[in-house]
C-alpha cells in the first residue's frame, strides 16, 4: 500500500524505493529488531550494512529456512524484500 511519501509499506514486502531497489538504511535495517541484533552479535551486526552484505547469503538462507529469527519465522514478504535487496546490488 502506498503511503503519502509515495513509498510502499514495508510490511507488505513491496518495492519500497523510488528506483525499485530496496536500500539498507530505509528498508532492510528496520526489519531486524534489537533482539535479533543481540542474538547474532557474536557472528555479525545486523544493523551494519557491510556485515549484512558480507553475510547476506547465510542470513537469507537462515531466514528462508526458518532458523532465523529464533522466535518465529519471518513472513514471506519480508524474506522477499531481503532477497530483492541482495539481488539488486545491496544498496545502502
Question: Explain this structure to me?
Answer:
With 92 residues, the protein is an all-alpha fold. The protein is 43% helix and 0% strand. The chain starts with 23 loop residues before the first helix and ends in a 5-residue tail after the last helix.
Run of helices and strands? HHHHH
Roughly what fraction of the amino acids lie in strands?
A: under 5%
Mean pLDDT level: 86
* Class computed from helices, strands and strand pairing: mainly alpha
Q: How would you describe the shape?
A: globular
Report the span from N to C terminus.
Answer: 23 Å
With helices defined by DSSP (H or I, 4 residues minimum), what is the helix count?
5
**Largest sheet: number of strands, sense, barrel closure:** none
Unreliable stretches (pLDDT < 50, length at least 5) are: 1-15
The proportion of residues forming helix, as a percent range, comes to 40-55%
As a whole number of angstroms, the C-alpha radius of gyration is 13 Å
Record field, number of beta strands? 0
Amino acid at each position: 500500500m502506498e503511503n503519502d511519501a509515495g513509498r510502499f509499506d514495508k510490511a507488505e514486502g513491496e518495492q519500497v524505493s523510488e528506483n525499485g531497489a530496496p536500500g539498507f538504511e530505509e528498508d532492510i535495517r528496520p526489519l531486524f529488531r534489537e533482539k535479533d541484533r543481540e542474538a547474532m552479535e557474536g557472528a555479525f551486526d545486523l544493523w551494519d550494512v557491510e556485515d549484512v552484505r558480507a553475510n547476506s547469503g547465510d542470513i537469507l538462507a537462515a531466514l528462508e529456512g526458518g532458523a532465523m529469527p529464533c522466535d518465529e519465522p519471518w513472513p514471506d514478504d519480508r524474506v522477499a524484500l531481503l532477497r530483492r535487496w541482495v539481488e539488486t546490488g545491496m544498496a545502502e
